[in-house]
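Listing S7. Sequence submitted for prediction.
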Amino acid sequence: MYATGHYGAALLAYAPVGYLLLASDPTLAFVGGAGVLLLATLPDYDLRVPFVSHRGITHTLLFLLGVAALLGAVGWQLGQGSYRPLGGPTRAAAFGAGVGVIGVGSHLLADALTPAGVPFLWPLSGESYTLGVARASNTLANWGLLALGVFATAAALLLAGP
C-alpha cells in the first residue's frame, strides 16, 4: 500500500481504541490517534536506508515488538516524573506500547493485502504472507482504505458523544 492506504488502515485499526479512550480522556484519545498516524508509514523508511531491503526486517513482527518496546519504555519514563500526562508508569508504558502495536501493526496488515505480502515471522521464516487482494499501487484500494478509516474514526467520534 501507499501512504494513503496506510493512513486509512491506521485510522481503521485505532477507531475502536479511540472510541474507548474518548469516554475517559479525549486528550489521550487524540494523542494516541496522532501517534498511530505518525507510525503508519514507519516500516517504509526502509526505502530510504541503504542496504536494507524493502519489506524486509521493518515489515516483521520483530520490528513491531521493537517499536512497541521502545515506546513502552518512553511511556514508562514519562510516568516516573512529577508531571504525568499519561498517568503512572504502567499506564503510560501500556499506552506507548499500544500506539506502537497499532501504528506498525496496521502497516503490516495493509501490506499483507498486497500480492508481495510481508515476512511476519522473520527470522524464524522468510516466507511472505499475503491475501493478494490488491497491488500496493492500486488507487482504489489505497483511497478505499483511507475512506474506511475516516468513516470508522467519524463513527467513533459520533458514537462517543459530547
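Caption to Listing S7: primary sequence and predicted C-alpha cells for the chain studied. The helical segments are 3-24, 26-39, 61-78, 89-112, 139-160. Residues 64 and 104 are 6 Å apart (CA to CA).
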